[in-house]
What does this fold into?
Amino acid sequence: MNILLIGAGGREHTLAWKLTQSQLCNHLFIAPGNAGTALCGTNLHIAVSDFDELGKACLQNEVDMIFVGPEEPLVKGIYDHFKGDKELEHIHVIGPSKSASQLEGSKAYAKDFMKRHNIPTAAYAEFTSDKYLEGVDYIKKQTLPVVLKADGLAAGKGVLICQNHLEAVSEFDLMLLQSKFGEAGKKVVIEEFLKGIELSVFVLTDGENYVLLPEAKDYKRVGEADAGLNTGGMGAVSPLPFVDAAFMKKVKERIIEPTITGLKKDKQVYKGIIFLGLMNDNGEPKVIEYNCRLGDPETEVVIPRIKNDLVELLLATAEQRLNEVKIEFDQRAVATVVAVSGGYPGDYEKGKIIRGLQDSTLEDSIIFHSGTKKVGDDIVTNGGRVLAVTSYGADIPEAVELSNYIMEQLDFEGMYFRSDIGYEFSNR
Ligand code: AMP
Ligand code: GLY
It folds into this structure.
C-alpha cells in the first residue's frame, strides 16, 4: 500500500524508517518531511494542515493510509476532513477525530473527561474571564506550588508551575485578561501540583481494543542535570527501570481501560495513538495530560523497540482487529540524544552545514533527522532540534554512551547536546 506520513521532525523520520521496513509499504510519501525522511520516501511540499492539498496529493499518488505525526492537523480535524469527503473516505486515517482530539486540544475537556470517567488526575478547577475573581480566590486557597494551564494548544508553553500565590495570580491575570496565550488562554485550568517521577506511556487503539507500546521518559530541560529552560525534548530512554508489572497493571486498569471505555461511552471516534503523560507517585499513577499522537523525542526510542511490522499494526488499527495482534518488544535498552542549534530554545540560526553524517547504517545506532534540509549536496540545519541519535545497549548507560560517541563524530556550527541523558539510571 501507499502511505502518507504527516510531519517533519525526528518522530517522522523514525516512523518513515520503520514504515519502509514493511513488505506492505509500497511507496511512502511524507508531507512536508525533512532531509532524513527523503532517504525513506518522497517528500511532498505541503503544510501539515493544508487538508485540500493533502487530499489532492493522496488521490494523485493513490495513497491508502495516512499516519498523522503532530497534533495540529488532528486538532484541526484531518480525520473528519477525509471521512467527510466521498473521494477520500476510503483512505485509512490513523489518528483520532477532531472531537476526540480535544483530549489534547483542550485541557479543560481532558480534565472533565477524566472526572466523568473516574480516571486519577490532579484536582482542578477551570475559569474564564467572567469568573476572574473566583479564580483569584481559588488560587489563594491552593497549596504551593500551584499549576496554571492555558486550555488550548500553546506550543508546549501554556503550563506554568508557580511557586507563590502572587506569581500565580499575576500569570492568571496575564492569561485571562491580557491574552498572553491568545485564544488558547481564554480559559485557564488551575490544578494541584503532582509529586513523583514523570513517564510517557503510549497506547495504540482501534477504538475497541488496544496494544501497549514501550514506555519512555523524555528530558525536557535544555541543560545537564535538568537545568535551564524547557525544550521540545533533549533526549529519551526506554525501558524505564522504575516501571514494573504492578505499576503497569494499575496504569491499564485505572487509566487506559477507563479511557478507551470512556471514549466509547462518549461516542468518540478514536483510531490512533493515546499518549499518556503520567506521574508515578510511589507506585500510584496519575494522568498529567493526554496527547493524541506520539511524542518527540520519545518516538525515537519507542518505535525502534517494536519488533512488529508497523504497517501491519496500523492496518489492524484501521480494521479494528488489534485484538488479533501480539506486540513484541526488543528487550535491549534504547536511548536517543538530541543535537540542537546554538541558542535553542531561544533564538537560533539555521542553514549551518552538518558534517559527519553517514549514509551507511551504523551498528546499533541510527541517526534520525529533525530540523534538517538538503541544499545542493549539503544537508543543513533547519530548526531548533536538528538530529536525534538513537542507540541500543545492554542497559541505558551503555545506549547513551554509544549515542554520545556518535554525536562526537557529528558537527555543525553552534551544535549542542546533553551528554547526561538517562543520568538517574547511571550505574557507573
Ligand atoms: P503539559 O504541557 O501538560 O505536558 O505540562 C508540561 C509539564 O508540566 C509536564 O510535563 C510536567 O512536567 C509539568 N506538569 C504539568 N502539570 C503538572 C502537575 N499537575 N503537577 C506537576 N507537574 C505538572
Ligand atoms: N516530548 C513530549 C511531547 O512530544 O509532547
